Amino acid sequence: MWSSSRSIWAGSEQALPLQSVWPAWTLAPFPLLVLAIAVLPLLLPHWWEKPAFQAAVAFACAAPVVVFSLRAGHGHEVFEAAHEYVAFITTLAALYVTSGGIHLSGDLVATPKVNLAFLLLGATLASVIGTTGASMLLIRPLLRTNRQRAHTAHLVPFFIVMVANVGGLLTPLGDPPLLVGYIEGVPFFWTLKLLPVWLLYVASVGLTFYWVDRRAFARESQASLQRDELERSPLAMIGRRNVLLLLAVVPASMLPTPYRELALVAIATASVVSTPRDVHRKNAFSYAPIVDVALVFAGIFLCLGPVQAALSAAAPRLPVNQAWQMFWGAGLLSAVLDNAPTYSAFTALARGLPPGALPTVAGVDPFRLTAISVGSVVMGATTYIGNGPNLMVKAIAERAGVKMPSFLRYAAFAVAIMLPAHLLTTVGLWWLEHHR
Description:
Helix 6 crosses helix 9 and helix 6 crosses helix 18. Helix content is 68%, strand content 3%. The radius of gyration is 21 Å and the shape is globular. A two-stranded antiparallel sheet has the order 1-2. With 436 residues, the chain is mainly alpha-helical.
């Protein structure tokens, strides 16, 4: 996911007809796993909370694909998928562990302005320490600040959209797809050109959140508001050494393999060893959220190969050659395929299209690259599996007693909240591409 410009499971066999490489049945495990993630928490909530059950579901979906691949002589592709997964999960784990060693104590008055400030701060930090780092740093103090309020069902879903996804649009450090682009040759500071789009999404989602939170705040009882006022205390930080470790994750993730993985494991280990137990206790720190993500995404990565191969084989026949089409194509697939592999697939597709009048960026027309970058990042917020931090934030909130929407209800919410910005981005990309 991090280390190569080619899609995983790619190779010389892609020149062969798809059915001669991957039988049609190998496409089924991936959508079955996605369906299981959406449905089983509703049908079997107590079972789904058990890591062993999640592991069994992921194994049941991934095992047929892996066994077929090994028996058909595609062991190298399985190794590549496993390598990409290790790079992905070690980076997320290092960010999760180090941010979990930083405790922001205090309990602010949970007004709409304070909550909006949390989201804006998170959206800004996301492009500096990554969406995972910003999410893990701020989700706990946000939940603590709002624990006295009764009407906060909207809070965490907005946080996932704004902090865990949209905020990471400005630098390769912000979100995995942009880091993939940097490794593929996109200049580090090129993504700063996406600032107008970042402002569009942050402003539209932020204003919508403020309107919703004001209405919810007006419904709070006087007793809740008085309790919130009485229990207020200023923010203070402990665990400052983990700030340096958190920042060290950024350059470590850019190292070549296997030094990257070793460095990330060393950073996470240093955080665990050096963080006082009291800090973890105050954060209610648990390895359960990262374990949940690790189990689910292990299945996703191992099931993904035949799906990517099918998309690659069908690409020449797909009606996807304009920037706005790539925005929606990359975005919709990012919602269900994880956004970094989707980014790689669409940039590979874009390199095969005739370039426009402007100089290419890493072999890609700049308007198409903008569309793919924006779509992959912002539409990763559409589902819980679109970006790694989404599931982690959900797990932390649920362990704090917050009732989260189901897979489908959250997806409907995210689509509705971001649709105005999506439409404006679509119009902007079409106009720029046709009037350059």
